[in-house]
Structure formats: C-alpha cells, structure tokens
Write a structure and sequence with these properties.
134 residues, mainly alpha, 83% helix
Length: 134
C-alpha cells in the first residue's frame, strides 16, 4: 500500500506544505471558536443560576452576543477550512487546474480575518506561486 502521491514539481511541493500549515492552523482556529462560543453560552446558565433573582439582562445579553459572534466566526471558519482542504488535496494530487481555480486573494483575506493570521498568511504566500503554475 502506497502513501499519497508526491508532486513532481518542487514548487507544487512547496505550495502543498504551505497549504498544509494553513489547514492545520485553520482547524485549530475553528476549534478555538467553537470552544469559546460554548463557554460563553455555558456562562449564561452559570450567571443565571448564581444571581438570587435571575441574571441581570445586560450580563446575559453580553454573553449571548459574544457567543453568537463566535458561532458566526466558527461557521465562516468551517467554510475557509474546507476550501483550504480542497486546495491541499488538489496540490497533493497534482491537479494544477483545480488548484488555480480555487486560488483567490479574496479567500486569503477572508481566511486572514476569520481563521486567524497564519492560515491567511499561508494562502497569501501560496497565491503567487499557484498563479505561476502551468
């Protein structure tokens, strides 16, 4: 049984490594967002149970608001992570056409904002070499 096919082009190998690093950190950011969202929603129950006559509405509103913000960031991070994974699979299999079709500065900026700095920077670094592939 053989492992995944290694790209013949050294530039493609470098792109694959950059995408793998971006993918790993995008997964970590995604997990971080969902954990923080769960903590905020759990804090709503904690604050509500600790107050003698119910939780102050402002405290509950803030906690729910932050939880919703992190859920939205989690959802966008899932989309970015899936896109990085598809790009990684295309680079790993040597499918230059699919890799170039998915390459976008817009998605790199979205990754920079919603998946943390490292996935976005890795996509920005890989953008130029992907465009130069033939």
């Amino acid at each position: 049984m053989s492992g995944p096919s290694q790209p013949q082009n050294p530039v493609l190998g470098s792109i694959r490594t950059e995408l793998l690093v971006g993918l790993i950190f995008a997964i970590l950011a995604m997990l971080g967002f969902i954990i923080v969202a769960i903590i905020y929603f759990a804090d709503v129950a904690l604050v509500s149970s600790m107050a003698p006559y119910g939780a102050p509405a402002a405290a509950v509103g803030v906690l729910v608001g932050f939880g919703i913000v992190f859920l939205i960031m989690f959802a966008i991070s899932i989309i970015v992570t899936i896109r990085i994974y598809r790009m990684y699979k295309a680079a790993n299999s040597g499918d230059v056409a699919a890799l170039k079709a998915m390459n976008s500065l817009g998605w790199a900026i979205v990754a920079l904002i919603f998946s943390g700095l490292i996935p976005g920077i890795m996509l920005l670094i890989a953008h130029g070499p992907i465009q130069q592939l033939q």
